[in-house]
Amino acid sequence: MISVSGLVKRFEGRDVRRTAVTGLDFEIPAGKLFTVLGPSGCGKTTTLRMLAGLERPTAGRITIGGATVYDGAGGTFVPANRRPIGMVFQSYAIWPHMTVIENVAFPLSVGADRVPRARAHARAAEMLALVGLDDVAQRSATALSGGQQQRVALARALIREPKVLLLDEPLSNLDAQLRERMRAEIRAVQQQLGITAVYVTHDQSEALAISDLIMLMDKGAIVETGVPQEIYRRPRSEFTANFIGVANAFDGTVSGVEDGALVVATPHGLVRVPPAAGIAPGDSVRVFVRPENFTLSRRRHTPDDWEATVRYGIYQGDCWDYTVEVGGAEIRVRVHKEKAGLTHGDVVHLQLDGAEAVIMRVRDGNVVPSMPPPALEHSLS
User: Is the C-alpha dihedral spanning 334, 340, 341, 344 positive or negative?
Assistant: First the structure.
């Protein structure tokens, strides 16, 4: 397990003093894939580099597998080459003068614990078989495709049998189709080995697809941490709701309680949502609804339906993404079936699945994050 407490990183120079990471506290269970997600400049790569020993923190404590690798108070700092980690970078870092197998074997041929060439190449052959590249072992590494070169980098990171695998935006340089295939391969290797992995990305769909646990960061701090399904379906902050996927947001006032649900009056109509801690009738709130939690039809089904006008639709292959207008506001709706004939200007009716909506209180014009759910350990075991 990885444990991080009070982790801070400040960059200081003659004319600049910037805090990149401020007071991070988190734990990563052994054998899980933990994704650090966030926009550019949020501190996620700096956090990974501190775990790796490539960046010295300003304060805090890091332990890996029970061993302290950094303790600001005690002065402990274990350098990168003595930490039980392997790392895959955004750039492939492939040596052009070496063959594929020489690239993979290289970590075993340097340092005080280097091994004989034959043994290093035997281990490298095992790693190449693991990532499906055993048939190109003798080729020049630079003759491979981008996806193959990244698999070479993955094999090289694993050759020393590290306790932890760190991956910094490893798929950013690949095209969309190859990224999807490679993330599945990385996940398969991680699960096969049972290795603890920390994966940094700015891509929300990538994080949802590959992770056991997601830690969302913004401006050097943790916004929230959760399993992918919960962080998508039940975000606890406005930032999370908007950064992870698409969220339609509606302001309103809680007008009452019916059959255990909060009734929210919005400018577009009533919404019935599950109860939330600290929210009561009379409170100002914001309701977040994912596009797939609307149903779209040509006729009215219930008195609570919202009448809307179609602005445009985008065909996504397995679904249609429609933008409709309700009372001057645009709403995104995802429909997982054919809706032939819907065009600009058509009048339709929306039914909202309130059970899947998320409600947060608004105070002084600001959205107040909701209370965190119970501990996640049972979800990760």
Answer: positive
